Amino acid sequence: MTLQEVDSRHLKETEIVSSEAESLSLPVLDGSYPPSDAPAFEDGKSHPIRSALPSAFDFDALPAQKELVAAFFQRDFQELGRALEWLGRWLGAAIMLLLLTASGVAGTGAKRRLVSICLPGDQLLLQLAPREEVVALSWLATDPDLSPQWREAQGIPTTRGGAEELLSLKPDLVFVGVYSTPATNAMLRRLKIPVMELGVPEDFEQLRAQIRAVAERLGTQEQGEAIIRRMDARLARVAAKAGEPRPTALFYFQDGFSPGGGTFADAILEAAGFTNLGKTLGRSRSASVPLETVILAKPEFLILTAYQEAHPTLNAFSPRHPLLRRLETLNLKIASIPFRQLACPNPENLDLVETLHRLRLNAEELQP
User: Fold this and answer.
1) What DSSP designation does 149 have?
2) What is the Cα 17 distance to its own chain's centre?
3) DSSP-assigned states of every residue in 33-58
């Protein structure tokens, strides 16, 4: 029997209950019972069974009431089922949220799968992320000619950033270069894989901002701030001894390029107490500088870079030109540094700042 049929039949049965109750001298309920706090149907009305049934009657004498009572319990069970279904959904959502939070997908917590396919990302992951969370670094991370922390990167798998290779790593976050891998970057976004793009800082202020941004993304802000404090303390110690006048200096790379203004190499020279001759020549960024221009500019310090010296090329000949060596006798001071100290803006560049500062101080001490 459906609930509609029960409700319809209820009207007829109420008359039976009333007449039978009168013959039995039983009170007939008029709807004021049950009290106002009794459960109600979805339409807000009191249960008709509870409103119609007397407080006591002979069920055997009223067989029709048995069906009504059965329907009453059936309807109550339906209400209970809907309540339990809602409660189950709510509990399921709460449990899912807890699991996501614990897994680190919704914030910090358990182990993540971090990947870098660019040199700046390699260096910052090595300094800011738990090592066990670093799934792979770029193939440049272990190159001693390019990576400032190539020793620290040993033992961590490397990747060349191919699409299939990256997907097999199942990363939670990938650090990419802004300019280096545009196709891969676009592919990762299409697949909804979280990506953080890293540019090339042009000075120490931009480097600080990059460290803070990566540390915030990784949830290691305190570690990032500690790195910045150490970097700033070292810069302050050098600046306190820099003084004036500033000698001129020029970086001269293996390929004949020299960095001008708006480059991190320029910031390094300035921090070490030099004037970047590349900038005073009116050049911005990096540009090819003929050897004749270098000689005519007469820098006080010429800083060469050592890069893949086991595999000499034609481009590597200019920094070794005999004329430059002859100029050493004319008060031109020549030094050579590993190219990795300039390849990637990083807190490790402070080693180069201090090295160049000592070079300047030692040269001043040797002046007649």
Assistant:
1) T
2) 73
3) -S-TTS-B-TTSPBPHHHHHS-SS--
